[in-house]
Fold each of these.
Amino acid sequence: MNIIETFDLTKTYGFLFWKKKEPALDKLNIAIQEGLVHGFLGPNGAGKTTTIKLIMDLIFPTHGEVKVFGKDPSDLDVKKNIGFLPDSPAFSSYLSAYDFLNICAKLHQIHALKRRDRIMEVLAAVKMEKHRDSKLGGFSRGMLQRIGIAQAILNKPKLLILDEPLVGLDPHGRQELKDIIVEEKKNGTTVFFSSHILSDVEKICDTISILNRGVLLCCGRIDELLSVTGLRAHVNPGNDDCVKELMGLASGTIKLPNGSWDLVFQNSEEAMAKISQVKEKAPDALVLAPTRESLEEFFFRKVENSTDIS
């Protein structure tokens, strides 16, 4: 089942003669499957936040349409099943963390008998329970981001939409957020989020989309999009003869404490032929696995190519 679907989704800002020449989003067609973590990527001004606002029914498309759970995003049943963190959340500085989440819980119509326990659950999930009675006005940007994430998961959403959730978080906080996203996925939640931190996206996302200047460049599973750049050979202990044969062609070599070796090879006919020969002579000596370009390398390649074409 597709949780989010867009059909030629287009948004041009302005009105009549004051419309911009280029649309912020141009004929976007994507389908996000249930239960996956999807990374929505692109440089600044690519159309990511515009897309999220359209999905959230905060703005209206110029052309095309978007479906969430197979329905129009304005449907109240759709809204009840979404958790959302905008890119620049605003908070009332005089409220405590608990009071703010209590208001959010009332808006979500969480029963009074369950409200306190659920608030304490989400505060614990974002490591903010000891700040429950502190005023939001005294929080750092990273602390406010954690509270924003807490309100986004408060209603146990089926779809969690996060716009740049990693902004303002230190490395420890980023890891905790990644753990929350992984846990939400385990609970059956579909997660759709934008981010500029590509190394984190690569670790936790199943699928990605890349936008540039409002145009979709690609969409699919990460393991299918990233190109194979070579092979990694793990040589088991006691096979030093194999290592000697292969080392001269390897672009990287690491000897591990147990006496085994990891050898990295670029795609070349000579290297692949030698690996095949060694594997044929000693089939149990090597464990082979493909090496792929990083998401960062793939991202810049796609964006730069699209810029050159335009």
Amino acid sequence: MKINISDAPQGLGEAAGSLTADLIRTTIAQRGRANIILATGTSQFETLKQLVAASDIDWSKVVMFHLDEYLDLPITHPASFRKYLRERFLEQVPPLKEVYLINGEADATAECVRLGELIEQHPIDVALVGIGENGHLAFNDPPADFNTEQPYIVVDLDEPCRRQQLGEGWFASLDDVPTQAISMSIRQIMKSKHIICSVPDARKAVAVQNCLEQPVSNLHPASILRTHPNCSLFLDQASASLLSDIVTAEAE
């Protein structure tokens, strides 16, 4: 894992978004197309902003998937990740070749099957991810399932995860936060050729510390990223504030 520590979220996003754009351009040049995964949430604001502004990407050769979506949440709800991606990405770039959004309002089992069949036909070149306050990767809360081969699964959201969504301002009360979601599985995420992980903010500092300094474990789901051959982790000073001198010395 390569670790990059920026002074502030804006610099983090510029670095992560720039690398993502370079990888997409290179993949298109080599293969004529690129398959990507986008993440959502406040951690991705600056990264997606940089990616949208990137020049010379032929988006007509890009196929997009995303990580997760709440069950039974209308696409019109402010917290809908489909709404997020439409407003912050899809409406900001030229039309993509294909876009496969998770429909959390459909039958969940059938939707997981549909998406699983699609993503198996589109091996992922570049995946954007984040780390939750509880260490989750996508909506795989601890203890995460490290073993399932299903590309998409229905998951229960634990209280720390739901409180994070409340704290970020997506919902008016904890009772409003859904208790289940469709999430890309850990193994599916790890199949990506390149993973770009953006994690700003001091409230993520404990999760970052656990994921980098504790043993790789499903109790710290994002710790699995340390085993990926091409993962780049982008932090800011706040999210990196609890890391040991040894870890920070290894950062770029």
Amino acid sequence: MAKANSIPKMDGTDLAKEVSTKRPYVWEVGERSHEPVAMVGVKDEAERFHVVAYDFGIKQNILRKLRGEGCRVTVVPAQTLAEDVLALKPDGVFLSNGPGDPEPCTYAVDSIRRLMGRMPIFGICLGHQLVGIALGGKTFKLKFGHHGGNHPVKQLATGKIEITAHNHNFAVDPDSLPGGEVELTHIDLNDSTLEGLRHRNLPLFSVQYHPEAAPGPHDSHYLFKEFTKMMEEWKG
């Protein structure tokens, strides 16, 4: 059995670049396209948007959800420069989940700042934390972390409660964000930690939880449609 002191320390550790893909690739499998249409009777949306997805430890079901909503997805390594993303001429950028402390991922924060305002951006989990830092905020380590399904999260604009899946050890400090620029959109009902934010003027939003969770809960699937709607409006 491994000794306790052999467990890697998470604070201050950049794990995203370790687990990320080493080279770009295109993801083509949606939620339904892996099943014969003759059997399931439905198929994925036709490709309408090109999304570049940063892989900080991305889950395949995120890619399936994006493809299912009509996105052609190019997955790129965590340390990909903003200029290289812009050269791909995407309609939007997705910032994935991933392990470790967000603070050391300075390369990602720099890229996000260079991409903000150039196209719609949607981040989840680690991507959400990196967005918070890029906007001038700070993150902190939770005492126990949030893990597993059935976490109640409140939409602040509507009062609606979403049952969500969590898997994170860090959170964004809402008091560190510039209130004039950032709208807080979701909070955790268990401990009031920040679960979502949106820029007031730029096409940028993020959530801390996992809307792609499989087998569920499915309350947050609407966020992928919000992303495609944002891209449609940006293109229009």
